[in-house]
Amino acid sequence: MTSTSFIADNWYWILAAGASGGMLLWQQVKEGSGAGLTPAAAVQLMNKDKAQVIDVCEPAEFAAGHVSGAKNIPLSQIGAAKGLPSNKATPLIVVCAAGVRSAKAAAQLKQMGYENVQSLAGGLKAWREAGLPVNKG
């Protein structure tokens, strides 16, 4: 059996596998970082473990809407931020508008020695879609 006859005989399986992989990849790209905390898991972490929420949006975005109790530290200032907890074991939930900047900030915070850092998958958009409250100002 040659490789060309294998492909010709099984083209539909190859097409199905490619389509399935493409859909999985698209879902990961659409959700931003593809990994992170769901809004429900974030609420549980905030209530149970007293996690601090760090919003890495720009100040104008933060003023337009943010998770209650979040501290605003823009991504560009995360390395030199003074608002981060001194205890590096404190659980941190990093939030942005859609989950892309927060994933970058979470990686940066881990490099800075923070042990329990997670990004909110889908960002504030997912938070709103879950029907959770947003503060303004």
Per DSSP, the total helix count is 6
Strand content: 5-15%
**Are there runs of 5+ residues with pLDDT below 50, and where?**
none
Estimated radius of gyration = 20 Å
Tell me the distance between the termini: 69 Å
Relative helix content: 40-55%
Secondary structure: number of strands: 6
The averaged pLDDT comes out at 88
Silhouette: elongated
Main sheet: strands, sense, barrel? 4 strands, parallel
Describe this structure in words.
46% of the residues lie in helices and 12% in strands. The chain is built from six helices and six strands, in the order H-H-H-E-H-E-E-E-H-E-H-E. The strands form two sheets. It has a four-stranded parallel β-sheet, with helices on one face. A two-stranded antiparallel sheet has the order 2-6. The mean pLDDT is 88.
Concise description?
The chain is an alpha/beta fold. It has helices spanning 3-9, 11-30, 39-49, 59-64, 100-111, 123-129, and strands at residues 52-55, 66-67, 71-72, 92-95, 117-119, 134-135. It contains six helices and six strands.
Record keyword descriptors for this entry.
137 residues; alpha/beta; 4-stranded parallel sheet; two-stranded antiparallel ribbon; 6 helices; elongated
List the topology elements.
Elements: H1 3-9, H2 11-30, H3 39-49, E1 52-55, H4 59-64, E2 66-67, E3 71-72, E4 92-95, H5 100-111, E5 117-119, H6 123-129, E6 134-135
Parallel strand pairs: 1-3, 1-4, 4-5
Antiparallel strand pairs: 2-6
